[in-house]
Automatic annotation (TrEMBL), chain B:
Principal location: membrane
Record-annotated ABC transmembrane type-1 domain positions: 92-282
Compartment(s) of residence: Cell membrane
Family, as annotated: Belongs to the binding-protein-dependent transport system permease family.
Protein's UniProt name: ABC transporter permease
Record flagged with keyword Cell membrane: yes
Membrane topology: Multi-pass membrane protein
Keywords recorded for this protein, A-Z: Cell membrane, Membrane, Transmembrane, Transmembrane helix, Transport
Amino acid sequence: MLEGHDLTFFYRGRKKTPVIDGLDLTISPGERVGLRGPSGRGKTTLCKLLAGYERPVRGKVLLDGRPVREYRGFCPVQMIWQHPETVVDPLLRMKQTMEEAGDIEERLLEKLHINKEWMDRYPSELSGGELQRFCLARALRAETKYLLCDEITAMLDLVTQAQIWEFILEEAERREIGMLIVSHSEALLKKVCTRIITLIE
Amino acid sequence: MRSARILDKGIKSRTIRKRRREEKDTNRRLQTILFLVAAIVILTAVTVAGVMTEGYAAETDFSRRNLAPDLQHPFGTDWMGRDMLARTLAGLSLSIRIGVLTAAVSAAVALLLGTASVVFGRKADAVISWCIDLVMGIPHILLVMLISLACGRGFAGVVAGVSLSHWPSLARVIRGELIQLRQAPYILAAEKMGVSKLQNIRRHMLPHLLPQFLTGLILLFPHAILHESSVTFLGFGLSSEQPAIGVILSESMQYLTTGKWWLALFPGAALVIVVILFAMLGERVRRLLDPSSVHE
């Protein structure tokens, strides 16, 4: 169970206008929660809080009853970022970046259509969609229990989008991964989610 | 059939062009490395030659006073019959040694303060940033003169003055780079992958920081050397017995009006060449290490 209790967060110096104010959210294993809302309402911030990238000003994030920021080593809550080119070191070849995530199953690479040859390239020599596949592959290690997807297919063409979502759904169902899916696409949310929540002011 | 052949030709010419471009790039890299080696060899040779001729440079011989440049004394001799080539070499050597020492001290100070302002939180950052602005706000030459005077002039005074006034710009660069790196998504993501703090610093931070630091360090040399010479020229630095370029230039001022042009021209030109060499060295190193061209 991934729980957010009374989550409140504001960026430094903006105490009067919190991005997230007293939000409660629970994701159970195997559940796929859709999250929609206008730009700037804190969808990405919520993902960062739940994944432990940011500390909430008030409230807490619990993963199976333990604060998510206390987990050391590989974190069972993984976030996929909207811009994959920012989450890979531009000075390292993809092979080296992927080594950090430990051994990645051949099967995942194959399913995500990751070309062996891409491993020897630098991030600047790959497209956004290609990089996003790498990010998915390393976030889907066996220990991952929750996956937070922040607009992960916004930059992809429709065919690739369908391909990737099909794979993610299959994987999530088989391993009972709980998911939070952020998107502006109504159709996508209706198709893949088990329930949808909306962020409003 | 015909279109296929044209297509084939197009591909071929494109691969040739690509290969040519690659060759040119490797050439440029090779050229840069050759230049670096040559510059370092020249600067080291000058430094060593200066140390070896120091004794000869101080030798006075009143039978050969004020000689214009000739084969035996290519840079001429001064009013005490000292060989100007030897004096120039000794002076440059001293300048380079002082430059290396002060640049190293400045860079160490910059690294320490830049790191401290990121590691020790916002209060420390505010204090250090204020110090950077303060030191940068005072004209360098003034600060060098004041510190040198306060430390009793001479070698110690010059080294203290130059090294305590040249760290701010590099400290600011390091601070900015570290602030950016600390928040970089790829480092945060690596942490969530279970990469330890130390590993993160080694794998992700140092490779980004090192080029900036190295370039900044080398580009400190020309500043340090010029400021050492000017403060000595003005009489606040090295004492007049020492074979420093600043001393040579200020002495030659008295003889310039009587037509002894070689006393100032050759030492001055030599100083300019050394400074330019250091500046070009730094610029080339920067281009060599620039992240955007790392896999050219």
